[in-house]
Amino acid sequence: MFDSTRSVLFLTAALLLAIAPGPGMLYVLARSLAGGKREGVLSAVGTFLGGMVHVFAAALGISIILAKSASAFAAVKYLGAGYLCFLGVRMILEARKESGTLQEIPNLGRAARNPLWQGVATEVLNPKTALFFLSFIPQFVIRGHGHVFLQFVVLGMISVVMNTTADLIVIALAGPLGEKIRSSATFRRRQRTATGAIMIGLGTYLATSEGK
Fold first, then answer.
1. Taking residues 26-42, what's their average pLDDT?
2. Residue 210 pLDDT level (bands cut at 50, 70, 90)
3. pTM to 2 decimals?
4. I need a surface site. Which of 16, 67, 92, 97 has the fewest CB within 10 A?
């Protein structure tokens, strides 16, 4: 069902994106630091479930587009590749501007009673997550192999699982690693710059390579 070259490329990109500190990881870290590891794990499970909602919604939408028009599907892929390049450039520019301690971690002094459902809501209501899946996953879906919906769901699930695994590692090491993520501008800058460069390269490759 999957092309071996693109599968390796997908796994590499998904791994690098998973380990790069982003809003989801910072949210889970904040819950863990505020309420302990149990609350952090429940939040991570919540963001996983919320991520899967986006995966199935995006898979259904892409399948409908493919059923209606192959050219429309190709347009989605090209637009997605361009969006990945845009995200990469923005990440690099933001990394260059970033300095000092991190201010993105929210104040959870009045955190919701149920971190699981708050995690679900936080992820489901994040439009950037939906846009990311609509731009990233279609690049690795191969029309000629059929089963587009299944391809999308499998790739999306792998991506979400990687993200959640990275979150759980951060929770397990919430003390020293959390402090490093929050206080080290150099660490975050290098991570975001490397991830941005990967996204630019990925978007460029996918936009210029021959579609299948």
1. 80
2. low
3. 0.71
4. 97
